[in-house]
């Protein structure tokens, strides 16, 4: 019985490795094609920075207190820009269906799209962090909380972009319009501009349903500011949100073939 179980594990392991390689190949393909598209750079990098400073301009606050929100906003917009642009574009040009004949499963394909969004978000979110530390004297109080916020945050929020890209439209413009209708309200209930503990009661309740809230919370803890949920709750909620959104994304993609 033990030998049979060991043989089963050995048979399954290569499949997982091959699947991971397929997902990585899809991610690399997206990195080469989409990362430097003007729409990706504008909505993923320039747009969040412009919104943040437009909102914070004129407020009498210290610059270092702004960076948890700026990092979170950059992470939020950058990770939710690649997949909502690439997936409808490839569906419109019929290259998405061509990938499935590779053969690649929908799970592997969705994972590849998520990875490409994750990597883009990692790179973009590190930029404001470095600016804060080098030029404004931001203090990294808890490295582990900062790493959790950036890594888990990107992993979770990238699945939001993949999920939104599964709407019925095959044009990037329509998907991006829907995405902004989701992103803009989430900015104001997630503690990016105003700490969650300073929100009214209804705002604090709603913040529990936004995965971005937990990203901000971990980043605030990492940079030495008071958090609201605590690192354990924030980490678990990001994992739960990420897995749930990925599962729903794959389920919706399977509906395209029916």
List the helices and strands and how they pair.
Elements: H1 2-34, H2 38-56, H3 67-79, H4 82-92, H5 95-100, H6 106-135, H7 143-164, H8 172-189, H9 201-207, H10 211-222, H11 231-255
Helix pairs in contact: 1-6, 2-3, 3-6, 3-7, 3-10, 4-6, 4-7, 4-8, 6-7, 6-11, 7-10, 7-11, 10-11
Termini separation comes to 40 Å
Order of helices and strands: HHHHHHHHHHH
Beta-strand fraction estimate: under 5%
Helix percent reads over 70%
- Low-confidence segments, ≥5 residues, pLDDT <50? 1-12
Shape: globular
What Rg, in angstroms, do the CA atoms define?
19 Å
Write down how many β-strands occur, each being a DSSP E stretch of 2 or more residues: 0
Mean pLDDT: 87
Q: What profile does the largest beta sheet have? A: none
Query: Strand pairing plus helix content: what structural class?
Result: mainly alpha
Give the number of domains.
1
Given the structure, what is the number of helices? 11
Overview of this structure, please?
- The chain has 258 residues and is mostly helical.
- The protein has one domain (2-255).
- 76% of the residues lie in helices and 0% in strands.
- It contains 11 helices and no strands.
- The chain has helices at 2-34, 38-56, 67-79, 82-92, 95-100, 106-135, 143-164, 172-189, 201-207, 211-222, 231-255.
- The longest helix is centred in the first third of the chain and has 33 residues, at 2-34.
- The protein is globular.
- The termini are far apart.
- Mean pLDDT is 87; it is low at 1-12.
